[in-house]
Amino acid sequence: MFFARLFASRRARLTAVAAVPLIAVSALAAVAVPPAAAAPGCSVTYSAPSQWDGGFTANVSVTNLGDAVNGWTLTWSFSAGQQVKQAWNAEATQSGSQVTVRNVSYNAAIPTGGRVEFGFNGSSTGTANPNPTAFTLNGTLCTGDVGPTTTTTTTTTTTTTTGNPPVGSLPSSFRWNSSGVLISPKPDATHPNVAVKDPSVVYYNGKYHVFASTYTNGYNLMYTSFSDWSQASAAPHYYLDRSGIGGGYRAAPQVFYFAPQRLWYLVYQTGDNASYSTTTDISNPASWSTPKNFYAGGMPQIIRDNIGNGYWVDFWTVCDTAKCYLFSSDDNGHLYRSETSLAQFPNGFTNTVIAMQDSNRNRLFEAANVYKIAGKNQWLLVHEAIGSDGRRWFRSWTAPSITGPWTGLAESESNPFARANNVTFPGGQWTRDISHGEMVRTNVDQTMEISPCKLSYLYQGMDPNAGGEYNRLPWRLGLLTQTNSTC
């Protein structure tokens, strides 16, 4: 039977966020511009979700209401002597009360209606920390009015349109198209792999960077990259046991850029702990550091007390402006969450709790993802289940905070987030399992933010007729593309 090995050892991850008061300062100045020049306009949302005597953490969201920009500078003034101390997702400088924040390499472009977000830690005098009242983007005062967007055709005819930028929401049900098999094992003399699975993916510097588990007689990790999905099957694989990650059991990777430290993190399971490696260059797979563990004391006691005959798997990391969270599953109906401060990460994970549970272990099995929904105080939880037919599928929930409460979105077999019954296979159905995967993210940092529009999900599937020992099942990678986007 396909599922001879019911409780598989693999994965892990994390996530974070807090509902916070916001002060919105919006912006736009409509000015006369020649054809093909940028019509300016912007809105800024500034919040300080965490404050203490002498300091604070701030989060800033900038929406471009005018023509697309490539390279941005945001300025404002503090009125109570506050100082920017450490920024992420941007470069910040300060002269007196005047703050100047510039893009970094991966977020220079803001399309019309697009948004960029960054955060920083600051100092204050006591608890005096009033929010800034005015912002300028590339010299334009942000007022929130929607100004004209001007474009020029090849005949130099100029058209002007007005209106609010598109705002999307997650639907209450999902429909998908699936690609065929995109990534298969590439065995070599020392890696006779039979499966590639548990993918993590980011789009950065014009390329998709994919990390995944491989299996021969044990688990390890691989990396591949390409500029278009049509190139995925031919792209070479680099086996990460050749990097500092080394040999031995490594599985279920998650990759992201931790902006406060300007480091890429690869999180993965090593059997008895959640581990990580780092690099400054995601495109150089040989550069990953040797593994370090997240939990100095090993498995937290609450997991020991509830894991039963399951496995501690699938670690997922996500951060808000104040904390980072590490989620994990146990193949026994429990989703766990640990936390640490943003400043302490990757150290100090504690306060491990059961974030969600189900008396039917198959309904809350493994492979959890948590994402921030762009432009909203909303988080999406996706979790793998085993269906009544023995096939893998995904349930989903939303919450106003990373700590919940979680409300079902599409979480039944008749209304799933992703299952064979809501996926169309234009090239022919090559799998009936929609298993461990990850959203394709263009926002690469620790916030795990995704747009609710036109979702794409890289997942593992396999030949419906395959069977045998779980670890040797012939998993392959394919791509789901949402077909019922609301925007």
UniProtKB/TrEMBL annotation:
Residues 146-170 are annotated as: Disordered. It holds the Pfam family Glyco_hydro_62. It is found in: Secreted. The keyword Chloroplast does not apply. It comes from the Bacteria. It catalyses: Hydrolysis of terminal non-reducing alpha-L-arabinofuranoside residues in alpha-L-arabinosides. Its EC number is 3.2.1.55. It comes from Lentzea kristufekii. PROSITE patterns: CBM2. This is non-reducing end alpha-L-arabinofuranosidase. Residues 35-145 form the CBM2 domain.
